[in-house]
Amino acid sequence: MTADAGTYLYVVARDSGAPSPEGLSGVAGAPVRAITRSGLVAYVSTVPLAEFGEEPLQRSMEDLDWLDATARAHHHVVEAVAVAVPAVPVRLVTVYSGDEQVSGLLEERHDDFCQALDRITGRQEWGVKVYADPAEQAEPAAAQESGGAATGPGAAYLRKRQAGLRSREEAWRRASARAERVHDRLASVAVAGRRHRAQDPQLSGRKEWMILNGAYLVDEERRAEFVRTVDELRGEGGELELTGPWAPYSFAALDEGGEP
User: Does 2 have pLDDT greater than 70?
Assistant: First the structure.
């Protein structure tokens, strides 16, 4: 490998001796290949440091079009590998100086990778988003008291504004309680569950509140039960969006200090 190229790491799996996926391309259209060491295999591409070096990456990460294309290519490789074997995805744009450094990573973090692989083998990640319409969550405002209350347009405006704020706060409390119930119910079917930060409305494209952005690691034999539980929760009101199954991004990270 030349000094102006680096090794981009996508995902790590156990080395089963199976050939690498044929014709698989990754970021920047680079072909995907395998590096094996200590019973593990890392799926990588050779990338130009002119684009994936530290300073160029700082600029590129602010380019949303570049970031979107790179994330899609990264995810494509991870999914292609994860469909075939249990695999530990690596964070986006993880670039090493060369194959030797990746090989050393497999040796040094062997036990951590194996623990992560044990955690996800035979399991899949599912995503559940729950939306709530603030207007549907709010209770009708209480009738305004007239006796002894200040009169005039200014006082009426303040009373209306205070009632609106109370109504919005109550709507949020109701929505939050609903999110807790949904999460607890789904987590009871899953091996593990995590609540991610709700997406910005500009990303979700929704005017409703996203009250839950959950990820759930589910045993393959309980897949139908998990999907059925989501359907039952839909029947209780609110909009639930089920996605997956995915490669277990939310649950495959190495122990603290071990993630590449």
Answer: no
